[in-house]
Amino acid sequence: MFSKTIFTVAFLATWVLAWPVTKRDECDGDHTYNYGNTNAFTPKATYNYDVSTGAIECTPTTNKVTKSDTDNGHHITTLMTFEYPTASAGMMCQFGFSLDATDTLTGNQGGLVDLFSSLAPAPGCTSGWGPGNQRNIHMGRLAPVLGGEATFTDTYTTYLTAPSPCKAPGTVEAFELVGVNDNVHVEWDPSVSGAFISYS
């Protein structure tokens, strides 16, 4: 009887560990999760940035990438801060972006977004200029899809747009997602969808 109990517990533990988790709200303290059997980690912080005023909105309920020819230059981008977890040590990493079927995606060419690296992470809420978005290297262009993972339509660096050696655990990196063309509206709940870095 005792050996049968041990077998049952071991079987259930193996089954639970193998089950793919696809929702961001099931991530652990390291912001790691299993996305369709792919290990990944999500941003430790996300912010909405107003390109016109330099204002940084912290802890938004939704992240946005918006551009409109009627917004008087108040384009919104998403700033993201990642911290590499212990589990990614010695692995290969790649940037990814996914949307839930209930998220918002409209715009020219279906709603494209550009990925940039940032010189430094956003410091938190600001109402105006300083420090700005810290935009640095144009890394690639993504074509998001509702209910799935975006693909890179163009890449301008191989770093994280293709499998790249993961940074050491504890390393902090920042990135920015920016709308392409005159009109685009991408909006998502960061606890469910959005940016991630996969590792294998």
Automatic annotation (TrEMBL):
Signal sequence, start to end: 1-18
Highest taxon of the lineage: Eukaryota
Keywords assigned by UniProt, alphabetized: Signal
Protein known as: Ubiquitin 3 binding protein But2 C-terminal domain-containing protein
